[in-house]
Amino acid sequence: MTGNVDVALPNATDVHVASEDGLVLVSGATAVVITVNIGAxxxxxxxxxxxxxxxxxxxxxxxxxxxxxxxxxVPKGAFKGYGMGPEDHVAIFIGQIGAPQ
Length: 101
Fold this sequence. Notes:
Elements: E1 12-19, E2 24-37, E3 40-46, E4 59-66, E5 70-82, E6 90-96
Antiparallel strand pairs: 1-2, 1-4, 2-3, 3-6, 4-5, 5-6
């Protein structure tokens, strides 16, 4: 018996992740942006298999194009870690939606 694992399809493109001082660490990525409640989101960014060395708990600037809704920005997204299994190359951030920069 083989178990199936559902992986969400990206709903954001041209996603970038930068340090708080503006150093771009990831660019041109895809992501899944999930609204938790008004203004709060989880952003799951697809990164290269050689995963960037994000620091758990540190804050990063995240932005990109949300499919059919224009630009989005999370100016202070906290890195929560990488996914597991088929999502081991997915960097997970939690934060608040802000004005695109």
